[in-house]
Amino acid sequence: MSDLPLDGLRVVEIGTGDALSFCGKLFSDFGAEVIKVEPPGGDPDRSCEPLVDIGGGKRESAYFAWGNTNKQSITADLADAKDVARVRALLGTADLLLDSRHADEINASALSHEALRKADPALAITAIAWFSEHGPYRNYQATEATIRSLAGLVKQVGPVEGPPTLPRDGQTAVITGLTAFIPTLAGLLSRERGARRYAVNAHEALLQISEYDLTLALDAGFTRLRSGVNSFGRNFPGGAYRTKQGWLGVTVVTIQQWRAFCVMMDRPELGGKPEYATGPLRAVHTTALNAIFEPILMQKTAAEWFERAIKLRLPVVVIPTMKELFEQTVQRERGAFGEVRIGSAIFEGPAIPHHLKASLPKRNGTAPLAGAHNTISIAPRKRVASGAANPDGPLPLAGLRVIDCTMGWAGPSCTRQLADLGADVIKVESIEYADWFRGTDQRPPYHEEQTYEKQSKFSIMNRGKRGVTLDLTAPKGIALFHRLLTDAHAVIDSYSADVMPRLGLGAEALLRINPKLLVVTMPAFGMSGPWSSVRAYGSTLEHGAGIPTVTGREQDPPTMNHAVFGDPIGGLNGAVAAILGFMYQKKTGKGQHIDLSQVQGLLPLTAKYAVEQSATGKLRSRPGNRHHDYVPHGCFPCVGEDRWLTIAVRNDREWQGLCRVMRRPDLAADPALATAEGRRKNEDMIESAIHAWSRMTMVDPAMVALQAEGVPAAVARVPMDLLSDPQLMTIGHWQPMERAFLGPHLMPTVAYREDGAVLPRRITMAAPTLGQHNKEILGGILGLSDRELASLAEEGIIGTVATPPKPKEAPRKAAVNE
Question: What whole-number percentage of the chain has pLDDT above 90?
Fold first, then answer.
C-alpha cells in the first residue's frame, strides 16, 4: 500500500484556470489519480507564457505544466452527447469533481451539478470560481489585479501619490487552490457520512488576508493610508534595504528587536532612546533613522547581515531573486524544488511544500499532453461514500480534537480553519505568556484594563475554539499538557523551532506520549538546518520567498504585497498539512511529524516566475502596473480623493468594450490598436486616454459599466470598504457576534458555501477569553476536582487573568531535544 495519504482517490477536473490546476495538483502530487478533462485541442492555458519546446515543433506553457504534474488528460467536447456520456461514465467512478466552469455554464450543461448530484449523490463536487455563485458580482470578469483590488489588497500598497501597486499573476491561484482544498479534503475524510458539494470563490479567499487590516482599522477608528513602497505605516525599520550585494528584508517590531537591530548596526546607543521605544514612534523618525542605517547597511552583503541577524534572533532575511532561490542550500536540502517534464521539456519548479515526514508528496512529475489518455480504459472502482451528506448534519472534522499551541496570525488561522470545519480546537495559553495577538504593548493598561481581551484581531483568528491556560514552564503544567494529548488527534505548533523542544515538548517527545498523534510544526525555515532558528513575521516570510523581487517597477526596490503577506498563507498551508495528516492517520492508524517551512510554503506563489527562470535561464523585467500579456493594464485615478480603478484588457474584444465605455470610437476603429502587439507599441497614448476619461468618472459606476461590457475592472477598495461591499453583504460574509469585553462585533466568515447555499453556516462560538474553558477542559476532560483547579490557580499554573511574567528558571527538559 502506498504511503501517500490520497492514494486510492479518483478526482476529475473540468474547466480551466490556474486555481483549478493547483487544487488538483495538491491531490495528484499526494497520490490521488487526477484526470483532467480538456476541450478538443487542449486547455487554453497551455498557450500561456513562458513557453517551452515540447518536441515535434510544438511549444507549450511551462507554468501550465507545473500546475498539472502527475495527472492524466482526456479531451472531450462537452457540447457533444457522446463525449458527455463518456465523461459522465468517468464521473460515475470518481470520488470528486473539481469544476471551474462558470455557474451559468454549469447549470445549462448536461453535466450540471444538480443533475450529477441527483443521479449520483455519492459524487463529491467542489466548484471554484472568481466570485460566489450568488450576488451582484457573480457574472463579473476578473484577473489577479482586479480581484485583489476588490478584496482590499491593492489600494494601500505603493507610492503615496499613487498609483497603487498591482500584484503579479499566479498568487491568487495558489491562495484559492489551498482554500478550496481544505473543505474538499475534509469532506472526503468523512465521506462515510456522505459526499458534499462546496462552492469556493477567490474573492472571499483573499479576504483571509485583508481581514487583518480591517480589524486594525476598526480598533483604531480609521483606515491606514498608503504610505510608500514597502512602508505600511506601522513600524520602523521595515521593508527592503539595499546592501553591498543584494537586498535585505527587515521587520523590527518589539523593543527587544529594536535594541538588537541597533547592536547589529553597531549603534547600540540608539536602542535606549525613549523617542524610539515603539514602532510607531520610530516611524515618525523614518527619514532621520534611514539616513543613519542605509550607509551602514551598504558596508556588508545581505548574506553577511543575515548571518548576524540569526545570532541576534532578529526577523531579518535575504530577499532572494528567483535565480538565487534555486541556489539556496537550505531550500535544496528540503527538496523545495522538483523536476517538471512535459513532452521533451525538462525544468524545475516549486515542489508541493507540505512536508509530511511519513508520506512526502511527489517532488517530481510529468504533465500530460492534451488527450494523452484518451484511449486508456478507466477501471471501475467502489467508493466509500454511498450518498450525499446532510448539509445541516455534523461538520466534516467533527470528532477530531486539536491542541492549539499557536500565537499571532499564521498558526491561529490554521487552527481556525479546522475549527470552522468542526474540529474541537483547544487553544493553550498561559497567564504570563498569552497570545501576542491579544496585544504587544504590555504597559500597565494591558493588565489593569484587560486590553488583552479587547483586540478584534485576536477575536477573528480564534473563533470557534475553546481556551485553556497552562504554565508549560512548570512541571505540573507539563503534566497536564501530557494528559491532554492522550485523546487528541493533533498538535499544531507555530512557535519558533526551538521553543517547544526546549520545554521537552518537541515532536518526538509528543509522539512518544501518543504515537497516533499528528504533530504540525511551522517555523519560517523548518525545524532543522542552519536557518531553523530564524525569527519571522508574515513580512519576513514574503521576503524570504523572494516574492518582492517580481513585484513593482524595475526601478523600485523589491516590492512587498502586504505588511504581513505570509501569515494567512502559512495558516492555509498548515490546515492543508493537518487534513492530509488526518487522511494518513485514518488510513494507517499512525501519527507523524509534519515539518512545515512557511517560507517554502510561499514558493508556489512564485511558480510562474520560478519556472520561467529555470526553463529559459532568465526573467522578463518587472512591468510595474503593466502586464506582459494584457494591454492596457493598470490602476487609474477617478473622481474624488485617492479613488482608483483597476482595468485589465485581456483580448481584442475587451479592448472594443473599453473603447465603448470611454466613448472613443476613434480608438476602437484604429487598426494600429486592433491587436495586443499594436496596443503595446502605443501603450503610453492609450494610458493617457484612459486617464483623461477616468479622471472625470466616478469609480463604482465605471466598474459596473466596464463589467457590463465583459471587461475585467474593479474598484481598488480599502479594507474598511469591505463592510459595505454589496457582494459581501448579499452573501453574508460578515456575521454579527457577541463576545465578553468586545460586545457586538462583525466576524468574517469562510470562503466556501455548501450545497448551493447563499449564506455560510452560522458561527456560533466566539474566541475564548483567557482561560475561559479551564474548568470545562481540565475538569470535564481530565477529571480535576474544583479543589485541584483552585490549587492550580493559586500556584499560577492556570488562571483567567493575565499577569506580568515573573523571572524563573527554565524547567529541566523532559525529553531529548530534536
Answer: 91
